[in-house]
What we know:
The chain is an alpha/beta fold. It has one domain: Lysozyme, CATH 1.10.530.10. The protein has helices spanning 43-55, 60-71, 91-96, 105-122, 127-136, 138-143, 152-165, 172-180; strands at 12-18, 21-25, 36-37, 168-170, 196-202. The protein has a five-stranded mixed sheet. β1 (12-18) and β2 form a beta hairpin. The protein starts with 11 loop residues before the first strand and ends in a 5-residue tail after the last strand.
Amino acid sequence: xxxxxxxxxxxxxxxxxxxGRVVFSSQPISLPVxxxxxxxxxxxxxxxxxxxxxxxxxxxxxxxALIQVESGFDPKALSSAGAIGLMxxxxxxxxxxxxxxxxxxxENLMAGCKFLSYLLQLFDGxxxxxxxxxxxxxxxxxxxxxxxxxxxxxxxxxxxxxHRIGRVDVSQPLHQALDAIPAQSQGPASTSPxxxxxxxxxxxxxx
Length: 207
């Protein structure tokens, strides 16, 4: 792909889900037999998450997997402990990482990604510790000798996110297309709309 600038309004994203595996691409996807066009209700949120991840130099698969486990991509999610939105940020954490309104989708994504970036630096890229820190707090990880705290919820959380990372594929062409978008177009998704997100799903039966 050339390094020419890409107009964000002309970027088309393709998404296909099959047996729990999700593929994102900026190029047409070869569809298996039985693939069906489905609602794109969640696709805008997924794309905004990809943009936030790229803005912080994060693995897009990690961010998408974490959001799926945290909130199931429900921007109105509120946990019993008070964690808010897509990335389930506690109010104090949201404020700490720059979100003035944790319910705002883009602020939630950007603050959550900034938190992840901080944890990756703190724990030298060890994903087990990063995810444990995201779930239980970095203090708990440090308190237990820089190891995953022996909390059933945290252990299960780490395993779940790591499992989902392996079931997400964001193509290199899409990464390149995003990198080619001029900086002034990389604001909130609402100011740099995509012409189309095509969303397909392959039923478990393959029919």
